[in-house]
Amino acid sequence: MLHDFKKGVERAYRRIRDEVLRTDCALDPEMSRAQGADIRIKWESRQRTGSFKLRGALNKVRSLSAPRAAAGLVSASTGNHGLAMCWAAAREDVPLVLFLPETVARHKLDSLKRFPVLIEVVFGQGTVGFEIAQQVRDVQDVLVPVGGGGLAAGIAGYLKSRDPGIRIIGVEPAASSFMTASIRAGRIVSIAEKPTAADGVAGGIEPGSITFDLCRTLIDDWIEVTEGAIREAEAVLNEGGRGPVEPAGALALAGLMSGPERFQGRSVVLIASGGNSGRAFANDGA
To answer: What is the DSSP letter of 100?
Structure first.
């Protein structure tokens, strides 16, 4: 499986590398001193459309056959995935029907109905891991926000194909920790969800989703974080001009700050997955 991941992610990167931004993965000296570890932040919140979602969306669109692309796509979203699908479809001149609820707000709703997650999308998200491997030679731990699990699975699949010893840790809000609960149960389950500021990862796992089995196999550990921890991490990441980061994009730091002793003296990458808090559907200027 890991060999397939390596080939799939590298093929995806070749498809999208001329359009996606190679986002910074820079050492943060102040945060490193505060946490007692070498902390790097992978700034996917600075990606075109404001999140990592563009990688999977563009890879999916570009993997379509000519007849399938001509037939067009249908997607439903009010958040980062919708922005990414609009950008990718427009770039490739693929017809797209995007469904929005009548009550759509200017910011993302707390439950994201996404275009079905297919393996091409997971490989596209895995290109974040491809860049990390090039940018950080000695990475030991990668903390990743988790909602549906595509980003975590893609990063884990690629990095572990290169070094099985790298620890991949999924971080979820305690108020909406569907993946963590499902991993513990050994099957996709539903839980009593509570409101969370991290709306970009809120909501359950689709029945039959491939990401559940991938996460169960590839993710080494799970951290659930409180709403207070999410807000604190968001504030840290946005202070001093670091950001932009939305609450879901701050989950990785929230996980680190919730148990810093686990990462003492290690080389850690935090995925700042998105920065679209309060952002409307709009052209990002790219």
So the answer is: -
CA distance 182 to 172: 12
Tens digit of each residue's pLDDT (9 = 90 or more) over 143-190: 999 998 989 999 999 999 999 999 999 999 999 999 999 999 999 999
Does residue 183 share a domain with residue 133? yes
Report yes or no on 48 lying in a domain. yes
What residues have CB less than 8 Å from 37, skipping those under 6 apart? Answer: 256, 260, 263, 264, 265, 266, 267, 268
Angle between helices 178-185 and 210-218 (to 10 degrees): 70
Residue 66 lies in domain: 55-99
Extract the tokens encoding 47: 């990606």
> What span, in angstroms and rounded, lies between the C-alpha atoms of 279 and 286?
16
Q: Are residues 66 and 185 in the same domain?
A: no
pLDDT tens-digit readout, 19-37: 999 999 989 999 999 999 9
Which residues are paired to 269 by β-bridges? Answer: 40, 142
Claim to verify: residue 132 and residue 235 sit in the same structural domain: yes
Element (H, E) at 172: strand 167-173
Query: Strands, DSSP E only, in 174-240?
Result: 221-225
DSSP 45: G
Q: Which one has a higher pLDDT value, 163 or 49?
A: 163
CATH code of residue 64: 3.40.50.1100
